[in-house]
Every structure is written in C-alpha cells, then in structure tokens.
Request: fold
Amino acid sequence: MTRFVSSSCRTHTLAAALAVAMGCLGTHAAAQTASCHPDGRPAGTEVIFNSSGGTYGDAIQRAFFTPFERDCGIKVTHVNSQRNYAQLRQLVRSGNLAWDIGATVADQEFPLGIRDGLFHKLPAGYWDKLAADMIPGSFNEYGAWATPYSQVLVYSKEAFPDGLKSWADYWDVARFPGPRALSNNPIMLVVALIADGVPLDKIYPLDLDRAFRKLDTIRPHIRSFYRTADQGVQGVANGEFVASSTLSGRAVVAMRTSPRVGTSWDGAVLHTSWTFILKDSPRARGAEALLYYMQRPDRQAELAKLTGYTGGNRRVLEMLDQEIINALPATPERIATSSVVDAEWWADNNARVVQRWDAWMSQR
Amino acid sequence: MRGRGVHLVLMAPACLFVFAFVIAPIGIALIDSFSNEGTWTLGNYVHVLTEPPYPRVLLNTLVIATLTTLLSMAVAFPAAVFVASRSGRAVGIVVSLLAITLSISVLVKIFAWQVLLARNGLINGALLGAGIITDPLLMLYTRASVVVAMVQIMAPYACLLMIAGMRRIDRDLMTAARTLGARSLRLFRDVYWSQVRFCVVMTTLIIFIGSSGFFVAPALVGGPGEIMLGMKMQSDLVNQYESGLAATTGILLTAFLLAVTFIALRLSGRSFRNVAEELAR
Reply:
C-alpha cells in the first residue's frame, strides 16, 4: 500500500517538475538556477507543510509559502490537520508520511521527537551562513524556532489604574483585590515560583512542592482555570476578572480593542514551537529549502506584521516599527525578563506533572 | 429463501454501522485499557479507581449528571404532560419551537450564559440597578452555572421525547376510570403513570447518559475543580500521549451507564428483549 502511494506521488512530482521547468523556460530561466537550498544545489519540486490552519495558517501561507513558491520554484502543498504527539510518532513509524515539514504544538514535543528519532537531521553546514543572525538556541541540527510565544500577565486598568507589575502583584490580594483567572496549564507552576521569588535562572528543575504551596494560597481568589485560549483575557476585558494569565499575542490584540486591558511582561514564560522535517521524508531537500527560507528576516518581519509572532532571526528587528517590536515575546530585552521553558525538563517530567496538576485542579 | 436474502441485504448497512461505530471502538478501547506497552495488566483500572484525581472526577461527573437530569425532568415533565394533553395546532407550534431551540449550537447557548451570569452581566446589572444587592453575585464559574447551562441544553430533548411518548397513551382509559369513581391519586398512579412510566424512565435514562458525557459546559462555565470525565479524558489524550487511561475511563463510564440502563429498564417494568420487540413492531 505504501509503495503504491509513494509511486503515484512520484509520477505526480514528475509532472509538477515538468510544469515548473516549462514555466521557467518560458518566463525567467535565471530563477530556476538559483537554488533556495543553502548548499546551492537543486532542492526538488514539491514539499508538503502541515499546520493546524486557521488565521495562523493563513499568515504563514502569505508570509512564507506563497513567496517561497515564487522565489524558489518549489510548490508548497499546505495541508491542515490537528495532531498530538502520539499521532506524530505513529505517522513516522508507519512510514506512510502524509506531509514533510511542520511545527511542534507543545514544548516537550521537540526533545521527545529527537529522542524518539522522528526528525530528519539537517546536513552539516546547513546553518553556517545564518548562525550569526539567529538568536542563540533558536536552531539546531533538527530544526529552528517556528514562533516563540509567551504567557504574560494581563490586568484590568479600570480596577488598578497604576497596573500590576509582576506575578508577585498577581498574588498580592491585599493590594490588588478581586477575582482572578489562570490558565489550566501546568506551566503556571513556573508562574507560581516566579511569584514566590525564585530567580529566573533558578526555576529548573521545578520545585513542585513549593509551586503547589504557592498556588494553594491564591486558589480561593481564582474564579476560573480556563481552558480555551482567550477566556482569561476576555474576562479581564469585560470586567469578570481583575487579572489573568494569557498568551502574548492575545494580550496584544486585547489591548488594541479594549481600553481596560493592561499587560505586564515581567516574568513572562517563553514557550517555543519548532519547525522540523519528518525522518525519511521523500521530499527532504525541498523541506530543507523551505525551512531555510522561513528564517529570512524579511519573511519573518512579514509574519510579525500579520500575527505579532515571529521566528528566531534577530535582524527582523531592523525591519519593524517599534509598536510591533514591543509586542514580540522574544526580543533580547524580553528574553532577559522571561523564564524560557526548559523543554528537556518538561519532556522528562510532563506525564507526572500533569497528573499532579489535574489532581490539584479537581480538589474542591 | 429469497425473502431471507433481501433481509440480509437490508440488514447489512445497519450491522456494518453498529460494528464500525459501536462494537469496534469499544473493542479497541477494551484492549487499550487492559494493556500497557504490550503486556496485559489491570494497572489502568487500579489507577483510575484509586489515584487522584480520577475518583473525584468520577464523583463530580455523577453528581453533575444527576442534578442536571433531575432538574431537566422537573422542568420538562409538567410541560410535556400539558402539551401532550392538548391537540391540534398548539402541539405543532410547541414542538416546532422546541425543535428550533435544539438547532441553536450548544456553544452559543453557553456563551449566552457567560454574558447573563457574568459579574458585569445582565442579571447582576439588573439586581444592582434595582438595589436588591450591593455587591455583584458570583454566579459564573460555579457548579450551579454548569448545571443551569446543561439543563437548558437537555430539557428540550427531555420534553420532546416525553411528548412523543405521552401522546400515544389511551385517554379513554382515564375517562373510564373516572366514571368508575377513581380518585385523582388513584387515577394518576394506576391509569396514567402505568402508561407513561416507560417513556418517563427511558427519557430520564437518555438525559442522564447525555449529561454524563458533557464537556463544553464544565469547560466554559465551570469553576476550579469542576472537572468532569470528558475533560480528564481529553487531558490524558492530549498531554499524556497514551490512550490507556482515557480508554479505561471510557470503559468504566460505559459499564456504569450500562448498569444504569439495566436498572432503569427494571424500574420501567420492561426488559431488553421486551423493548427490542416493541421497537421492532
């Protein structure tokens, strides 16, 4: 069955190659010779990118895929499917790859995928020309940052005109009384430790007992541990809560639309999603070219304009207005006051921590 | 012989459907629940029955589903009795209005409750404005808000099911009993209730089964701790990358609901066979 699928794909690829070649002959023969692969050699004719779609899917299509097809002559088929890690592992182990390149959807997926051998290893020297432009730690031999995003503190400017400055203020119910919301996500354990005064560079390994004790003290003041992305910030905007955690992009949008919402970035928890290529992808060279293209600063700047999120290329900052830069979660200044998620720690401990988190959550 | 062939052909789609969407998934879940990395074990069951948060979540689910069922029936039963005893156009209008409420998305209904029950919402606004309260009531993100939202969703189903059942009873028996001198209590118990019992018990059962699988209402208007089984299963599947615990939870819930079904049938004075025969008629 697998063989049938891949052979039919190959004929399809061949047809696409012919079409592209003929198109190039007719119009701009020069474009065909310039490869978008860092090694300068041809990179195939097609690649399949999987995303979860939605507005973010539309934005990466506009910022990356459409210009990549135009500039590199490689067709990008953009498919949308939701998946979890177990399904990703199953996909690679079955050998019946439905797509070539995609992004992680949880912090621990990237280290887990490397351990489980699910990712394609990039060729030696792949990053050489780009390395100096990239944020340290934002790339390695299996991929690069797709979009860093952070958990920030939002508060009601109506209730507190001077604003909350930090997670310690969120816990200070004497100075800042009122109902609160917090994400139903074990990453809030990090927030509790920051509020308890643990320095940002001493967060990992997490002291779970200390974090849960700190959470116990705020629990009576939390009306909702929300599960949908913008419930917390929406509640702050309509007066249901006086403070909440939320994702940085949601905070930026809320501040534009509601005068009530203020944001504190101090002690933000920085997550990163990674773009990776599946092991044994038949179109790995095309995927390598696309991954490389996605690091271009002008393309990442375009994504930032569309979504308020960008990748790991530092030169993006030269191309954006200050207003957009202020909303980015991973500028050097932001990183200095953020707790960067230790994905390795979460990969080792996630299962155990989630069980304890769910147990704590279901207390009455 | 030819008749039998036609029978088989006609039965095949239904059998395939039941196999593909009922029997096969339950079979897969059973295997998943009894295995862990290739070995057969009862570990998942021990875990779900003893380790927190599962017992708590199970209890939450049963309490919320029971409250929802009782309140839905309390709202729907009198309404159904009333509508079923009328005839003509009025019944048509009420039934179509109920059907329209079912066509409104569950999410829309729950968001409406978020607006109504919010701290700055309509109800608090009205009560504060009228001077009845001085501080806004905390209504959203409580067990009560979950149950209220679920009753709004389930009550129309209960009502429609019971109207359908109650319209089939023989009203002449009531008249006959009354002319023979039966008092209202006796009339209700021996003539009315005995005819509607099956439909009421079955409706209660269907509402209970539906309520115990709820996900969106507790997730969107529930407070801290208001975790139901569906939410825990989702958390296990999405965060734990293994289906064993979620499968076990599902199997336990299925087994429990099956037991409830048997009890309900017993209460309704019927048996499975009896019901199947009635449905086949």
Remarks:
- Chain B is about 80% helix and 0% strand.
- The beta strands of chain B are 35-36, 39-40.
- Chain B touches chain A at residues 51-53, 56-57, 60, 118-120, 138, 140-141, 219-220, 223-225, 227, 231-232, 235, 237-243 (CB under 8 Å).
